[in-house]
Design goal:
Length: 137
């Protein structure tokens, strides 16, 4: 048999994978909604880290969002950010997120607010740096 190298078939295969992913996550979400409807306590019993389906759903959506950045960055055609700009964004995000966490903690635990704000800022800037890697100059 001859090896098929038609690009249209490769694109169709990727669309099939995407549709299967959407179908799978829709079924997981539907099951979570049914669980929430039956328990009548949505946030206490279904949407917790103790529910494995919720964890799988959240982790697959986060993974999909991060892995989709290499395609999104190439399509968006934004200019590449300099290292100085990335560091300034990290600093600004650190201040904003730390303030929001401090506000959430009623300004009682500033050390914890700085750690949480720094963690969120590192994740967001890390995704932006990953996205920046695929941008053209």
């Amino acid at each position: 048999m001859k090896k098929v190298t038609d690009e249209r078939l490769k694109i169709k295969q990727l669309r099939n994978i995407k549709l299967a992913f959407i179908f799978e996550n829709s079924l997981i979400l539907l099951y979570l909604v049914i669980q929430a409807w039956q328990s009548r306590q949505v946030f206490k019993s279904v949407l917790t880290w103790g529910n494995p389906l919720w964890v799988v759903f959240i982790l697959t959506m986060i993974t999909f969002g991060i892995l989709d950045q290499n395609v999104t960055a190439a399509i968006a055609d934004h200019p590449k950010l300099s290292s100085q700009k990335l560091l300034s964004l990290l600093g600004g995000q650190f201040l904003i997120y730390s303030f929001l966490w401090a506000w959430l903690f009623n300004f009682q635990r500033l050390g914890l607010a700085l750690i949480c704000g720094g963690g969120v800022a590192l994740v967001v800037t890390g995704i932006l740096a990953y996205n920046n890697h695929y941008r053209s100059k």
